[in-house]
Structures are given as C-alpha cells and as structure tokens.
Amino acid sequence: MFRLLGITLLLIIISSQTVFSQKNAFDKKSKFLAGYFSLSNANGSLYPDDGVTNIKFNAVVGAFIEKGLILGCNFSLNRVSSCGYSNTQFAFGPQICYFLGDKTKNTLPYIKGGASLMYYRSSWLFSQKGPGTSFHLGAGVCHLVSDTIGLFSEVSYDDDEISTTEKGTKFNFTVGISTFIF
C-alpha cells in the first residue's frame, strides 16, 4: 500500500506542469513539496493515561493558487507505542497554507489548517481498527536556503477522533524541508 502511495506521489510530481513565468517560489502556479517528521506529546481518552510520545512522518504536495496561498494534500503515517499499547494511523486529506508578509523575503511566517481521514489499527486491552478523522491547525516559519529549497519549523495542534467516545489531542513541534518548483 505504501509502495503504491510512493509511486502515485512520484507520478504526480513528474507529470505536473511547471510554469517558468513565476518570479519567486511563492507566486501563483508554483508547486510545493514538503516532507517532515514531528515529535508529539499526546493525551486524552484516545491515548494511555500517562501520555505518550510518538513519531509522525508527513508529506505534503500542493500548488500555489494565489501568491502565498497553497492548496494541497497531506499524507501521514503515525506510530505510537507505550505501556503495552500500540496504535498505527495512516491519514490523508486537504491542507491550506498561507505565507504572511513580504513574499520577496527569504524568511516568512505561515499559518495552515486542514482535515484528514484516517485509518487506524490499535491494541489496548482489545484490538480495534477502522476509520477516523483529524483536524489540524499550525503556524511556523520557512527559511529559503536557495531559490527552491526551504527549511521550516512549526508548532501545531491536532484533534483526533475515532468514535464519539475515543478522542485525543496532540501538540506538535515540527521541523522539515520543502521544495518549491517555479
């Protein structure tokens, strides 16, 4: 399944039309690709009472629909294990991101938000699997180290739900790398 996802992402990147009329990375019709990991401190009824630290890997593919405004798709894999509890989540969904300030600068703050559908598999007292949802909000800073490569860091909040009684929240600190094709 992950192999198919990787091949699909590669085909999207290869087959996307690159328009060379943009003046900088944040212009309309530029493409955006980012990959990152985050370390999270999670709590709530969805997670063990003593809390848990987890690792999450993400990829985002998108395009600038206006100067500084990205509409894209977020893909994530999250693995949690603590005190005999394990949880694996795969999620994907739309994401919107807006870069604030002067778009000709090399360092820009941004805000983002999105929603994801997720599939989870967990074992805690008994095994569960099925669909769920996640909503996320974040803010960060992206620094362009070249015309096409950026390094970013952000803080974000996730609200996860797998049933009406199983809910949890996550506060994340994320660092990553992004590429802009223009």
List the helices and strands and how they pair.
Blueprint: H1 2-15, E1 31-43, E2 52-66, E3 69-82, E4 85-99, E5 107-124, E6 126-144, E7 149-161, E8 167-181
Antiparallel strand pairs: 1-2, 1-8, 2-3, 3-4, 4-5, 5-6, 6-7, 7-8
- The ordered string of helix (H) and strand (E) elements is HEEEEEEEE
State the shape: elongated
Number of strands: 8
Strand content: over 45%
- How confident is the prediction overall: mean pLDDT? 83
- Low-confidence segments, ≥5 residues, pLDDT <50? 14-20
Radius of gyration: 17 Å
Number of helices: 1
Query: How far apart are the termini?
Result: 31 Å
Q: Describe the strand arrangement of the main beta sheet, using strand numbers.
A: 1-2-3-4-5-6-7-8
* Largest sheet, strands/sense/barrel: 8 strands, antiparallel, barrel
- The chain-level structural class is mainly beta
Binned, the helix content reads under 10%
In words, what does this structure look like?
It is a single chain. The chain has 1 helix and 8 strands; from the N terminus they run αββββββββ. With 182 residues, the chain is mainly β. Strands 1-2-3-4-5-6-7-8 form an 8-stranded antiparallel beta barrel. Strand 2 and strand 3 (69-82) form a beta hairpin. Residues 14-20 have low confidence and may be disordered.
